[in-house]
Write a structure and sequence with these properties.
The chain has three helices and ten strands. Helix content is about 15%, strand content about 40%. The longest helix has 13 residues.
């Protein structure tokens, strides 16, 4: 069962597993001149999700303008790389779902957790950017990843 979640500003939206019921939907400070940006964080245990790659969950940021401060989606992917030395990049590929264009990269961490990240500009608003990161451990988490990747959007 999935639920559609919108951030507190009504800017970004995504469908996530209902069981990922610890959520933070207030803006996050990323150090951009535009100030805090719309964000959604979700997991069964947000603290564990934020500290390790052993808890499934997701994060999403929606930068509505000024995304060029981060650079290109490729530049952002460099910022999203896991800081865990056991994480190894599987591959970085172009992302184009007709709504967003950017890059997707996946990493396998240690003996199992997978970290997948997307950084992409909306085709209709190239100065904006959506950034999505997902940790998956089980087949159910991988199904959630598919749902997230096909539903993230600006509201």
């Amino acid at each position: 069962v999935y639920e559609t979640v919108t951030d507190d500003t009504g800017t970004i939206v995504v469908s996530i597993p209902a069981e990922w019921n610890q959520r933070e939907t207030s803006p996050t400070e990323l150090g951009l001149s535009v100030g805090p940006v719309p964000s959604i964080w979700a997991s069964r245990d947000l603290e564990a999700f934020n500290l390790t790659y052993d808890e499934p969950g997701m994060l999403m940021f929606g930068i509505t303008s000024g995304a060029n401060e981060f650079g290109t989606p490729a530049d952002v992917m460099g910022l999203l790389a896991p800081d865990d030395p056991t994480c190894v990049s599987e591959e970085r590929i172009p992302w184009d779902d007709t709504v967003f264009v950017g890059e997707l990269e996946s990493w396998v961490c240690g003996s199992g957790p997978i970290w997948v990240a997307v950084a992409a500009n909306p085709v209709a608003a190239p100065d904006a950017m959506a950034v999505v990161g997902v940790v998956a451990l089980t087949d159910a988490d991988l199904e959630a990843l598919d749902e997230i990747l096909w539903t993230f959007n600006f509201a």
